[in-house]
Structures are given as C-alpha cells and as structure tokens.
Write a structure and sequence with these properties.
Helices cover 24% and strands 24% of the residues. It is of the alpha+beta class and 111 residues long. Strands 2-3-1-4 form a four-stranded antiparallel sheet, covered by helices on one side. The termini are far apart. The mean pLDDT is 82.
C-alpha cells in the first residue's frame, strides 16, 4: 500500500493565493453621471465586472457617482469610460479621487 503524506492545514492557510503571475497595478476612477441608469443599463454595468481586469464597481446613487477599480496593466481609463458608455450610463465628468489640499494660512506677524 503506498503511503500518503498529509499536509497540515495551517501551512495551506499561511501560503497566499496567487491569481496573477505578474504584479498588478490597481487604479480607481470615479465618474459622475447625469441621468440615473435604467434597469437595463444597471444590468449591463454589472456585466462589466466580467471584463478581465475590472475588479470592483460601486454605484453611489445619492452622489450620482460610479467608482471602478481596475488593473492598469490590462486596461486603461479610456477603455473603462467606453465600457460604461456602451452599457448606457450617462457620464457627465471624471471626478478627482481626492480633494486637493487646502492652502496653508499665511502666518500673522508677531507684535
């Protein structure tokens, strides 16, 4: 009878799962849309998640924004923009992900 070697579960849990063989450059892009998406557009937007390289899609109905997280080694921002347009989303503008820092107040002269 051949001997079987048992692998402890702790060694399996410690080893990280590798989905990609190369490094991934993760980027986010934020768009503001005008007209709320229809049901058909919402379903089409959900299917964008199936595109290889798109990692996450988040719609914020209150702020009328959509945020897409994608792999920049596989996709570019214009490709993401076109995917959303083809899905039927009325994109108005690309929003900055972070607000620019406020200018520091000038120091007052000490008297």
């Amino acid at each position: 009878m051949p001997s079987t070697r048992e692998i402890p579960i702790s060694s399996i849990l410690r080893s990280p799962a590798r989905c990609y063989h190369q490094c991934m450059t993760q980027l986010d892009v934020l768009y503001r849309y005008g007209v709320p998406p229809t049901e058909a557009a919402t379903l089409a937007i959900a299917k964008i998640r199936e595109v290889y390289g798109v990692r996450r899609i988040a719609l914020n109905e209150a702020e009328r924004t959509v945020r897409i997280e994608y792999d920049a080694t596989r996709l570019t921002e214009p490709v993401i923009h076109q995917l959303l347009r083809r899905a039927g989303l009325d994109i108005v503008e690309t929003m900055p992900m972070f607000a620019p820092p406020l200018p520091e107040p000038e120091p007052t002269a000490a008297q």
